[in-house]
Amino acid sequence: MLTDTHAHLDFPDFTDDLPALLTRAEAAGVTRILTIGTSVESSRRAVALAEQYPQVFAVVGVHPNNAAEAPPDFIQQLRELARHPRVVGLGETGLDYHRLPGSDQRRTALDVIGDATTADLETGIRAAAIQNQQAIVFEQQLDLARELGLNVVIHERDAWDDTLAILKKFPAPLRAVFHCFGKSPAHAQAILDLGHLVSFTGIVTFKNAPDAQATARTVAAGNFMVETDCPFLAPVPHRGKRCEPAHTRHTAEFIAQLRGESLTQLAAHTTETADAFFRFPR
């Protein structure tokens, strides 16, 4: 039995064949799926899907790339959604600096003062404003998670230091999982030392992902889970195609081989980890 701990079943990619997709997942041994909200409306759709399908649970939150569009009362709306019995976490939330204005040069307002054109300064100021808004929305969701006793699904991209700095303000009992983890064992250990977890997508099966593979090979059982992030990041042998929950099995098989384990062993301990982290209703 496998759990896909991060899917986006509400995305339009799955509009036409969701029942068939769930049947394929079950046939592949993926018996439980978490569909993850990326905005208030996406979170509403996630809850609706969890109500409709018994193998689906919801996580509700606002993705950092949607932070600027979050309505003023988004926390209250998430609070109401999160009280639904089919909701098992907050997220995905976090920081994402990958597409900041001027991010190709990695320049922010403070970096460019002194040798910049007016356009450079304006770009840096916009980037800093986006970073600030993401941080505000992230911290508000961490506050809500602590209030409700839920754990958190973290999205981090090109924002490592800032993400950890914010998360350190919210110690245990709050716990987080860094989804779609592709960094080194040393990065993973920094997360584990704070009491948090990592989760692997199909990226781990890619030839150009040595850090993810090294981490998946060495991280102790009980500290990681598996996911798809579908419709994105389909594992080998489906790379480049639409990803779906059934593909969790390919990722799990690959990691099991890296670790010298059977698929049965890996499925057992990743499922146990998901059970403990998300505390699914029984």
Descriptive overview:
The chain has one domain: TIM Barrel, CATH 3.20.20. It is built from ten helices and eight strands. With 282 residues, the chain is an alpha/beta fold. Strand 3 (56-60), helix 3 and strand 4 form a beta-alpha-beta unit. Helix 2 (40-52) packs parallel to helix 3 and helix 8 crosses helix 9.
Q: Indicate the low-confidence ranges by residue numbers.
A: 105-110
Number of H- or I-type helical stretches: 10
What is the strand content?
A: 15-25%
Strand order across the largest sheet? 1-2-3-4-5-6-7-8
Name of the top-level CATH class = Alpha Beta
Annotate the secondary structure layout.
Elements: E1 2-7, H1 18-27, E2 30-36, H2 40-52, E3 56-60, H3 74-82, E4 87-96, H4 109-112, H5 118-148, E5 152-157, H6 160-167, E6 176-178, H7 185-193, E7 197-200, H8 210-218, E8 224-226, H9 248-259, H10 263-278
Parallel strand pairs: 1-2, 2-3, 3-4, 4-5, 5-6, 6-7, 7-8
Write a compact overview of the structure shown.
Helix content is 43%, strand content 16%.
Sum up the structure in keywords:
single chain, 282 residues, alpha/beta, TIM Barrel, eight-stranded parallel beta sheet, 8 strands, globular
